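Predict the 3D structure for this chain.
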Amino acid sequence: MKKLFVSILFAIDGLRYAFTSEKNFKIELSVALIVICMGLLLSFSYAEWLIVLLNIGAVLSAEIFNTAIEKACDFVADSLHPLIKIIKDTAAGAVLVTGIIAAICGVLIFGKHIIILFQTV
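Done. Predicted structure below.
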C-alpha cells in the first residue's frame, strides 16, 4: 500500500511539473475546464460526456507524454541531433493529431446543441 501511495505522489509531482512549466498544458487544461462548464450548461448526454472526457484525457495525456519525451531527449543530447528532432517532432505530432480529433468531436457535439438552442429561440 505504501508503494502505491508513493507512486501516486510521484504522478502528482509529474502533473504539477506539467502544469507549472508547460504553457500548452495550461492552455489545454483551460480549454478542458471551459468545455466541462459548457457541457454542464448544455446538459450533455451520458454518451456525450464519455466522448468529451475521453478526448480531454487523451489530449492532456498526449501533452504529458510529449513533455516527458522532450525532457528525455534534452537529457540525452545537448545539441539538436537529426534523430532527436524527429523524435520531438513526432511526439508533438501525436499531440496535434489528438487535439484535432478532440476538436472535431467537440464541433460535432457542441454544434448539435447550438443548433437546438437556436431552434428554440
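The chain has a mean pLDDT of 95.
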